[in-house]
Design brief:
It is built from eleven helices and eight strands. It is 57% helix and 9% strand. Strands 1-2 form a two-stranded antiparallel ribbon. The chain has a two-stranded antiparallel sheet with strand order 3-4. The protein has a two-stranded antiparallel sheet with strand order 5-6. α5 runs antiparallel to α11 and α7 packs antiparallel against α11. The protein is mainly alpha-helical.
């Protein structure tokens, strides 16, 4: 057990001596200590200590209010990135579906002369692509404000892929704006060649496939960031790992 943990459990920290924290016996498992650590890390002990000591100035010095505010903003941003990456993954997956659920299945349509042809349902495809564009823009907006290098790197890679496909996207009415967001012109999109739209947005190796992959990466990175804020680590299967590194009170100082 580190000296920092020992000082807290023995009741002495920052010159404050008490049996306030001396509620754990030497026979308790390391899991109990980790539980105590989690409470310390998330600020619960600090709040209790301030109440216990009536706002003691030494205890109050444990938290830097500017750091707390910054961390809170980072948590909010990471949560937004996670949720918007989820939305983009879902909208991209809808475009990528194959088989009976594919938006790119042709249906028979009769013209005014009664001639029957097979055509793409461009109205339904446009609706799905509009959602994709909206979710893409939302993720770009939040990710650019992230302070997480992995999120920023994956977002930059996604933007790079978009720019690499800019000419083809433009040919179906999807334009790349100066702020790296997308815009879609309904009339141009619906008038575009359906096979070109399909090649862009459906199938392995398509533009939408690459965006879905990057959105998945960004989702995983934001989840990891949120877990770090909580002082915990989760695997891709949801298993919890104790993975504490650095100073015991690093999140409070």
């Amino acid at each position: 057990m580190s000296s920092s943990i020992s000082s807290v459990l023995s009741g002495s920290y920052y010159g404050v001596t008490s049996d306030f924290f001396s509620t754990t016996s030497s026979t308790e498992s390391s899991t109990s200590y980790l539980s105590d650590y989690s409470s310390i890390s998330n600020g619960s002990y600090y709040k209790l200590m301030r109440s216990y000591y009536g706002g003691n100035s030494t205890a109050g010095a444990l938290v830097d209010s500017s750091k707390t505010t910054s961390t809170a903003a980072d948590k909010i941003n990471a949560t937004s990135v996670r949720d918007e990456a989820t939305a983009l993954k879902d909208s991209a997956t809808k475009l990528l579906e194959n088989g009976s659920k594919s938006l790119f299945n042709k249906s028979f349509v009769k013209d005014a002369d009664g001639k029957e042809t097979q055509e793409y349902d461009m109205a339904s495809i446009y609706k799905a692509v509009s959602s994709f564009v909206k979710d893409y823009n939302s993720l770009i907006g939040s990710a650019k404000d992230s302070n997480n290098s992995s999120v920023l790197s994956s977002t930059a890679s996604m933007v790079g892929s978009t720019k690499a496909n800019e000419t083809l996207l433009s040919s179906v009415g999807i334009n790349v704006n100066s702020d790296n967001t997308l815009s879609i012109d309904e009339d141009e999109f619906k008038a575009a060649e359906g096979s070109t739209v399909k090649s862009l947005l459906n199938g392995t190796g398509s533009y939408a496939y690459g965006v879905e992959s990057k959105a998945s990466q960004i989702y995983n990175q934001s989840v990891s960031q949120l877990a770090q804020f909580a002082g915990t680590s989760y695997s891709s299967t949801g298993n919890y790992n104790y993975n504490y590194t650095g100073s015991l009170f690093s999140s409070l100082l």
